[in-house]
Design brief:
18 helices; six-stranded mixed β-sheet; 755 residues; 3 domains; Immunoglobulin-like
Length: 755
């Protein structure tokens, strides 16, 4: 019996490896695609636990701001004073504080302007030639007038590029607060001309400007258990790591301007006309349609006023990580209410007439849909409002407010591309309220943690938008999402490896940021949801992550661990492949063989017996199977195996067993590096189709190819891998058996010429 078992083990081994290597190979480390990620993950600790949740001693700092801001429209300048109350919740004594001076990237001699290599281009638009080689560089960095403590005593400070260190008179102990003041100003840039995240757009026809203002004040850096002070300079791509706190902000602007900002307006009666105030109040309970606080006709009148007076708009925001505002006399202003989690939330749209009719039709609808869908997949929106501001060439997010592009032609017409582009960017930027404005990942280090997660839920929202507003998609089957569907990432993953980076890369160091930090992680999560985990399991885990890290600072490991902890699905293989490598998916059908029963061993069995010095007599009675030279050869019949027939007759308990008519061996191959489930569709001669999904673990012992047996009473006529294109397979030419002949466009052209 032992000898028989040894033979069977050796037979299996022999099937996998025909013969041993003549020379002994060198040893190797564990490169199995299913090994755990202990070598990549940070060690769990009391701040970030092994389940992916905040640890028992998790902490974060609190920063409160009291600001007085003045917008000088005539000179395009912003002046500000801020009082900062910094609370040290860490276990460490801090001898200095770090602040971000992101506007310093606009200084005329900013190192970030020279961060990329360049040469002489062979052609260039005249405006770019003038900008690059003739214009004096714009100087828009911070001018720090003073840094003082609460008693108005100067504090020593040092500026290093986009960072400012403030030395404290004595170390700030755990639990203590430090209050200090900063006075500053800077020149506002034209964001259309220089493609910046913040600034103004100039409208030459009516000599007006529309301001979208952010990164406009010195902001406290994050101090945490992961890296101490966040000290990565702002180079342009990596965004912002910020602390939560409360804001009280007074914004002084020309009195004919309309202002929206992070937070709740405290003095609407003072800054609005009587009619505007009435509409403002009406909008608080208008759930069916927007209320126009300022109509287009009224905005067009304001465009001509150019008031010399000023008004101060007062905003208060609780538990936010940043502050932004928009201001212009050109703004049309609409607001609509929605109930979420028992609370009244206001969806707001702000846009000049140049945005119509597109913005009036779709902006507020997109905001409302975003709040509904994102809340369903994460948590109920906790803030009082969400604002969408129209701004040319923009797509940028801040707490409760964001800037979005999408402008029709001057005659009011617009393309489908412009429409869907506008709706998508509004959904994306409003969605950023959830990631990273609330689930507050470090954007400076891990761009994908906000952009990728946001783009994924954006995809879900777009699909629901198309379902809710079918007129918006017209004759299309669904909303035409640009990112999220597996087929949309194939060209990137199949591209030149010299220009592809792992998702787990700093956003400053990648070649194709949109594909790397937005599209690929969004696609990966969509595949997890639809193909690997299933919707219910995925959705529960994703929501657990979002709720665990509301108003906190998660790391990548926190996301990875939570998704596994809340689902009981080991995903280390998935994270390793999709997030830590640039491997791609390519799974196909290598071969299909047909087998039949035999009453004696075939050549393969005899060869193995000979190799191990055994004879047929050393084996117990066996059922032998033999590969047929042709798939059309005889089918499985019991008469070919008297031994099997005898066994069935002597074991009546097996009387319900049905002998399959056909036995096929399907060999799958994996030229690509990524392991994935094998989704396969078997087609039979009677017209029936069978869909089977083999789990990704089938690749755990052979990362190149594997075989599966199909025993059936129906003749197999076709095999198709990934029939619905849900795995991002970069090469579908090997996905079918019999192999489908692919006719090139040139061959099609030649056939057409032949007539």
């Amino acid at each position: 019996m032992n000898k028989t078992l040894a033979f069977l083990s050796l037979f299996t081994l022999f099937s996998l490896r025909a013969q041993e290597a003549e020379t002994k190979e060198k040893g190797h480390t564990n490169e199995n695609k299913f090994r755990q990620l202990y070598d990549k993950f940070a060690t769990p600790n009391k701040y970030h636990n092994a389940a992916g949740a905040p640890g028992v001693e998790y902490y974060q700092q609190k920063v409160d701001y009291l600001m007085d801001i003045t917008l000088d429209d005539k000179n395009q300048r912003i002046d500000g004073t801020e009082t900062i109350n910094y609370t040290n919740n860490s276990p460490d004594a801090l001898s200095y504080l770090w602040m971000q001076l992101d506007q310093n990237i606009r200084k005329k001699d900013a190192p970030a302007l020279e961060k990329n290599g360049s040469g002489v281009p062979p052609l260039m638009e005249p405006k770019n030639f003038v900008k690059n080689y003739m214009d004096a560089p714009f100087d828009g960095g911070f001018n720090i007038e003073s840094v003082k403590d609460a008693q108005e005593r100067p504090l020593p400070f040092m500026i290093n590029m986009t960072m400012m260190r403030i030395d404290l008179p004595r170390p700030l102990q755990p639990g203590q607060q430090f209050i200090f003041n900063v006075e500053w100003w800077y020149k506002v840039n034209n964001h259309v001309k220089d493609r910046a995240r913040s600034g103004y757009e100039y409208f030459e026809k009516d000599d007006n400007r529309a301001y979208v203002i952010a990164q406009f004040f010195p902001r406290m850096c994050v101090y945490n258990d992961v890296e101490g002070w966040q000290n990565y300079q702002f180079w342009g791509n990596g965004e912002f790591a910020l602390e939560f706190g409360d804001y009280e902000v007074d914004i002084t602007v020309p009195s004919d301007h309309i202002v929206e900002a992070t937070g709740t307006l405290q003095n609407p009666k003072e800054v609005l006309t009587r009619e505007e105030y009435k509409r403002f109040k009406d909008a608080q309970t208008s759930y069916d349609k927007p209320v126009f606080i300022v109509t287009q006709e009224e905005a067009e009148i304001k465009e001509t006023q150019f008031s010399e007076k000023t008004s101060t708009w007062k905003f208060i925001a609780k538990n936010v990580r940043d502050f932004g505002f928009a201001s212009s006399r050109k703004f049309i202003w609409e607001r609509q209410a929605i109930k979420l989690g028992g609370k009244n939330i206001i969806a707001v749209s702000l846009y000049p007439k140049e945005g119509n009719p597109l913005w009036e039709e779709y902006s507020t609808k997109a905001v409302l849909q975003t709040l509904e869908t994102y809340s369903k997949f994460t948590f109920d929106y906790p803030y009082p409002k969400a604002v969408s501001v129209h701004s040319k060439n923009q797509g940028m997010e801040y707490p409760m407010i964001c800037w979005n592009y999408g402008r029709p032609n001057e005659d009011g017409t617009y393309s489908e591309r412009a429409k869907f582009g506008m709706i998508s960017v509004i959904i994306h930027e409003v969605g950023h309220n959830y990631f990273p404005m609330i689930v507050n990942s470090d954007e400076r280090q891990w761009g994908w943690m906000d952009e990728g997660l946001d783009t994924f839920v954006q995809y879900l929202t777009e699909q629901e938008f198309g379902q809710k507003y079918p007129e918006s998609v017209g004759m299309l089957d669904a909303y035409p999402s640009r990112r999220g569907s597996p087929s949309k990432i194939v060209s990137y993953m199949a591209g030149d490896q010299d220009f592809i980076s792992p998702i787990m890369s700093n956003p400053e160091n990648v070649y194709q940021l949109g594909s790397n930090a937005y599209a690929k992680p969004a696609t990966a999560l969509n595949i997890l949801r639809e193909t690997v985990m299933g919707r219910e399991i995925f959705d529960n885990a994703f929501k657990a992550y979002a709720k665990r890290w509301m108003f906190k600072h998660p790391t990548p490991e926190d996301f990875f661990r939570t998704m596994e902890d809340a689902s009981a699905v080991d995903l280390d293989w998935f994270w390793r492949g999709w997030f830590y490598s640039t491997d791609w998916v390519d799974i196909g059908v290598r071969d299909v063989k047909k087998y039949s029963l035999q009453d004696k061993p075939g050549p393969n069995v005899n060869k193995i017996l000979e190799t191990y010095g055994m004879t047929i007599e050393d084996l117990p009675p066996m059922v032998f199977m033999s590969e047929k030279d042709s798939l059309q050869e005889n089918n499985v019949t019991i008469e070919n195996s008297p031994l099997l027939k005898e066994y069935l007759e002597e074991n009546p308990s097996n009387e319900t067993a049905i002998l399959p008519k056909y036995i096929y061996e399907i060999e799958f191959e994996k030229p690509g590096g990524l392991v994935m489930p094998i989704i396969v569709e078997y087609s039979y001669a009677d017209g029936s189709v069978e869909r089977v999904t083999y789990p990704p673990q089938v690749w755990r012992k052979n990362d190149v190819s594997l075989r599966k047996v199909v025993a059936t009473d129906k003749e197999l006529i076709g095999v198709m891998v990934d029939p619905d294109l849900e795995t991002a397979d970069i090469d579908t030419s090997n996905n079918s058996w019999p192999k489908e002949e692919i006719i090139s466009d040139f061959e099609k052209f030649k056939e057409k010429l032949k007539g």
